[in-house]
Design brief:
One of its GO terms (cellular component) is membrane. This protein is α/β, with parallel strands linked by helices. It has helices at 14-28, 43-47, 54-62, 91-98, 101-104, 126-140, 176-193; strands spanning 3-8, 32-37, 77-83, 113-120, 144-145, 162-165. It has one domain (3-193): Rossmann fold. Strand 1, helix 1 (14-28) and strand 2 (32-37) form a beta-alpha-beta unit.
Length: 194
């Protein structure tokens, strides 16, 4: 059994839904999984702008906030998820990634496996850039990114991680095809790390 840590930031609920898909898929496969969200002082006001996702607010707020980067130590796999903002991660996810600077010199995350996911308004390049930002972070921390195979079943995915196109109003919920891609990516990760 492998130990997974999933850390996400979500404003509209889409990135949370993907994180939850990972969490459930890992539990179904008998893996140890911890689910955290990044700190976000503006979460409540941002969430209320999206009527369709008010129902997710309580579920997101029930997920514990990760307090420090060191909480991921001891994990075999780290999975990060962020909304795409201008081809990059959100400020809240960037702040979490930046908190690893305290660990950088000693490199305790070297050799840890890594995967990532994002949601974006459209699929025209921005999500891939966001995923690349997270992969670059992982490489600087000595982690081993696990790419998404080109033949993964479900929604078509880039090699850098899992993406969900949520639409201009962030109102397109995660599809069954994306859920299938997450499950198949989890199976691929388990194969790689075994």
């Amino acid at each position: 059994m492998a130990k997974f840590t999933i850390v996400f930031h979500s404003v509209c609920g889409n990135t949370y839904q993907i994180a939850d898909c990972f969490y459930r898929a890992l539990q179904e496969r008998g893996q140890e999984a911890a689910l955290y969200r990044t700190a976000d002082a503006s979460f409540e006001s941002g969430e209320k702008r999206i009527e369709d996702f008010k129902r997710l607010q309580d579920a997101i707020e029930a997920v514990p906030v990760i307090e420090e980067a060191a909480q991921v130590l001891g994990s075999d796999v780290l999975l990060l998820g962020s909304p795409t903002y201008y081809g990059c991660v959100s400020a809240q996810m960037k702040a979490f990634m930046d908190s690893f600077e305290k660990l950088w010199v000693e490199a305790p995350t070297a050799g840890m496996y890594f995967g990532c996911f994002t949601s974006a308004g459209d699929g025209c390049g921005g999500p891939e850039l966001c995923l690349q930002v997270m992969n670059t972070f992982a490489q600087h921390m000595g982690m081993v990114p696990i790419s998404v195979p080109c033949n993964i079943k479900g929604a078509v995915q880039p090699a850098y991680g899992i993406k969900h196109v949520s639409g201009e109003m962030a109102d397109r919920a995660v599809t069954e095809e994306t859920k299938t891609a997450v499950q198949n990516y989890v199976d691929h990760i388990l194969k790689v790390i075994s």
